[in-house]
Amino acid sequence: IARPRMATRLKAFEAYGGELFLLLDPEGTVLYASPSAEHLLARSVESIVGKPMEAIVHPSDLADLRALLARSGRQRGHHRALPTALRLLHATGNPIPFEGRMAGHTDDAPAHVVLALHDARGHRATEDAYTRSADDLGILLDHTTEALFLLDADLRLRAFNRTAAIRSRKLLGIHLEVGM
Description:
Elements: H1 2-16, E1 19-24, E2 30-33, H2 36-41, H3 45-48, H4 62-74, E3 82-89, E4 95-105, E5 112-119, H5 121-143, E6 149-151, E7 157-160, H6 162-172
Antiparallel strand pairs: 1-2, 1-5, 3-4, 4-5, 6-7
């Protein structure tokens, strides 16, 4: 009784999850694409299977794809998955960043390459926001007229801004190196 429900959930995960699974031959032809291709790339599975992987990879990432295919094909047997970051093309032509793993399996007949990728847009957006925030905070701290000191729980000096370095030298005779 539970199996049909689980199968339905698995199919929904495959179709709407953020993971894209691809099976390639050693030359990079797509042999299988998970149903999530329709959700993630707005491309039907039928439009991907049988085509070269190059058809859905951003032109700037083609050299990376070829190097990964060559590297995965040089190793015999099942081997450790290689970290992979590629931009795949949405049906609109817009690139979508994907990250994941690529593994070659050359002891099978025929040899094949498995790609397990996830949509990295959310992850990258978070990293970009953090970087922008850290840069903005650095600019604010360096240009404020207030002397700011960061102390740890044991009251050891961990960081300070430029104003603190200038004022410490003038008021206390202490020389603090900016960039400590």
